[in-house]
Design a protein that fits this description.
The chain has 208 residues and is mainly alpha-helical. The chain has one domain: Tetracycline Repressor, domain 2 (Orthogonal Bundle), CATH 1.10.357. 76% of the residues lie in helices and 0% in strands. It contains eight helices and no strands. It starts with 8 loop residues before the first helix and ends with a helix.
Length: 208
């Protein structure tokens, strides 16, 4: 990380900066948001902002990580209410779509700018992918234990599912000049992913 991670007052300040940046990025995107604007929203000087976050890219990465944590916390809360692995897979898709839309609309980057940001976000995105695969694998294992699914290698199947879902998402942004999702595009992707998930779940179902 490129920002200060002390506890106490510093931790509270960092959280406040991330929340303010989250709002700014959500409204205007990464490119059109300035550190000065975020500092102004908090009643801070720009110099104080740079003490915690030396650059806007580092702050954006921190916001992405915060969004990722919120996604997995929401998944955990949902799992406490849904005990059916098949229904939970569908709910995972709904929440994953919500996260995908939030992430891309936070950035609203042009493709060439994303190439610059990608190395900065690589470890964050890789960690998210690992947690995502583990989540799907745990749902598949739960289905096996409940006698609902028949799968020989849950990890391989989980990776396949995550990769297929990613492929459908990438189709949406293919040839886009700006990473931003229009409502009608999001709806179309939602329909495709729900259909794919239904087919996938039927494929997992126990045959006897």
């Amino acid at each position: 990380m490129v920002y200060i991670t002390h506890s106490g007052e510093n931790a509270e300040k960092i959280n406040a900066i991330q929340k303010a940046a989250q709002i700014r990025f959500g409204l205007h995107g990464l490119e059109k948001t300035t550190m000065k604007e975020i500092a102004s929203d908090l009643g801070m000087s720009k110099a104080s902002m740079y003490y915690y976050f030396p650059d806007k890219e580092g702050l954006f990465k921190a916001v992405v990580e915060m969004e990722s944590d919120e996604f997995f916390h929401e998944i955990e809360r949902t799992q406490e209410q849904i005990n059916d692995p098949a229904l939970m897979l569908k709910e995972y898709i709904r929440l994953r779509l919500k996260y995908f839309k939030t992430l891309f609309n936070l950035s609203r980057l042009r493709v060439e700018e994303f190439r610059f940001m990608k190395p900065i976000l690589t470890d964050t995105l890789n960690e998210f992918r690992r947690r995502e695969e583990e989540l799907v694998m745990s749902l598949i294992i739960s289905g096996i234990e409940k006698g609902l699914f028949q799968v020989e290698n849950p990890l391989e199947v989980a990776i396949l599912f995550v990769e297929a879902v990613k492929g459908l998402r990438l189709q949406l942004i293919h040839k886009k000049e700006l990473f931003y999702i229009e409502p009608e595009e999001f709806k179309s992707l939602e329909i495709k992913l729900n259909l794919f998930t239904d087919i996938f779940i039927r494929g997992l179902a126990r045959k006897d």
